[in-house]
Automatic annotation (TrEMBL):
GO terms for molecular function: DNA binding; DNA-binding transcription factor activity. This is GntR family transcriptional regulator. SMART domains: FCD (SM00895), HTH_GNTR (SM00345). The keyword Cell membrane does not apply. It holds the Pfam family GntR. Keywords: DNA-binding, Transcription, Transcription regulation. The keyword Transcription applies. Gene3D superfamilies: GntR ligand-binding domain-like, Winged helix-like DNA-binding domain superfamily/Winged helix DNA-binding domain. It comes from Nocardioides mesophilus. Residues 8-75 form the HTH gntR-type domain.
Length: 215
């Protein structure tokens, strides 16, 4: 059972709201989020609001500026390409081992893929971005390498804001992403590890091309 808002700890409530607001463009790139303003908006203390902003800085969504607050980050195409190229290395390396664990992996991936469809129907940008991230994390985690999983989570956190910006208000891009992920799911249902690895690599190359088109 999900927690009611009143039962959610204040730091988590502040973090969840601020992250949702950034990914949904309530706070756009370049906007300043202050500790006082966030605390007042949610009815939480300064410490809880500050902790939320520190956590968001660790995820690469904001930069803390002394005397100002947290500035919502912007990303250059070069930064995004660097992140995606690093993803290629991790995901291509883990794909074969993940395929070997496909019996346990497939139901979880199918569930998250369906969630992507639901978020698209709701035009929920933040939810869609989160589901996309979890889809790929499931596949990387199935390779059972905790170091690579940790590296991958850092990469995805750094990419979150750009992904959200790229699909916001663009149901055509959401549809294209859903179709791309459907190819991965279908390959995971088969018995050809090489074909699965190829589809994963093609998807990553598609992501790089889309990033260049979107910038």
């Amino acid at each position: 059972m999900s927690q009611s808002p009143a039962s959610v700890p204040a730091p988590r409530r502040a973090y969840d709201y601020a992250k949702w607001a950034i990914l949904s463009a309530v706070y756009e790139s370049g906007a300043v989020i202050t500790v006082t303003g966030l605390g007042r908006e949610l009815g939480v203390g300064r410490t809880s609001a500050r902790d939320a902003l520190v956590r968001l800085e660790c995820e690469g969504l904001v930069t803390l500026v002394p005397g100002r607050g947290a500035v919502v980050n912007e990303f250059s195409l070069h930064q995004v390409e660097d992140i995606l190229e690093a993803r290629v290395l991790v995901e291509n390396h883990t794909a074969g081992r993940s395929f070997a664990a496909r019996q346990a992996l497939l139901p979880a991936v199918e569930c998250v893929h369906e969630e992507m469809r639901q978020r698209r129907r709701e035009q929920d940008t933040a939810g869609f971005t989160d589901a996309d991230r979890r889809f790929h994390e499931l596949i990387v985690d199935a390779a059972d390498n905790s170091v690579l999983s940790a590296v991958y989570r850092t990469l995805r956190e750094q990419q979150t804001l750009f992904t959200s910006t790229m699909v916001r208000g663009r149901t055509d891009r959401m549809d294209a992403a859903i179709a791309e992920h459907a190819r991965i799911v279908e390959a995971l249902r088969g018995d050809d590890a090489e074909a699965f690895c190829s589809v994963v690599n093609e998807h990553l190359r598609w992501s790089i091309a889309l990033a260049r088109e979107s910038h």
